[in-house]
Specification:
single chain
Length: about 200
């Protein structure tokens, strides 16, 4: 009786490929299922540049300053409205929105709004150069590993968050912000916190 022909390397590899594809599919399904339903809804409603109303806790953080020494923590701003903006030195949209952030931070300073930049997964020298060119009148902190961006759930750059005095995120802006709608969102948060000048 003749021996059965030996399986070719290609045919032996097929079951392994099928197993790998199946494992990858299960990983994708598990990831989608494990995302907080509120976060999925937020992402589904995002319109680039426009504030999207949400209500969830802001991740606590304490990060080193990009320029100088020391750290900035979100907890130190408790009781104030805070704008957190994620940016990177080579992000074109970050550069084009810088003048709007500069203007917004200056015009809302007397109303107690605090701005913080987050330099996301960047190199130090380009980041310092970019910060100088942006002319931000507020501090930026370093997120070298991207873990803070992950905690906030950023989906691209730039990304901006309006955080209420209770340290909960009230609005998210994905992409280059639209100053007019951003002012409307910021004014609404200030109005809810008793700011009389809106």
């Amino acid at each position: 009786m003749a021996d059965a022909p030996a399986a070719s390397p290609r045919s032996r590899a097929r079951p392994l490929v099928a197993v790998a594809i199946g494992a990858a599919a299960l990983a994708v399904i598990w990831t989608i299922a494990s995302i907080d339903p509120g976060r999925r809804a937020e992402t589904g409603r995002i319109v680039p540049g426009r504030p999207v109303a949400v209500d969830r806790p802001a991740p606590a953080f304490s990060r080193p300053l990009l320029r100088g020494t020391g750290t900035v923590s979100l907890a130190s701003f408790r009781g104030s409205v805070v704008v957190v903006n994620f940016w990177r030195s080579w992000c074109r949209a970050c550069r084009t929105e810088a003048s709007s952030l500069d203007s917004l931070s200056r015009s809302y300073r007397d109303r107690g709004v605090r701005f913080v930049g987050v330099d996301y997964v960047d190199r130090t020298e380009p980041a310092l150069s970019a910060e100088r060119s942006f002319g931000f009148p507020y501090p930026s902190v370093v997120d070298a590993s991207g873990s803070l961006g992950d905690a906030f759930g950023i989906v691209g750059l730039p990304m901006t968050y309006i955080i209420g005095p209770d340290q909960r995120i009230s609005y998210i802006v994905a992409g280059r912000l639209d100053p007019r709608s951003f002012r409307t969102a910021l004014d609404s948060v200030l109005a809810r916190t008793g700011d009389a000048s809106t």
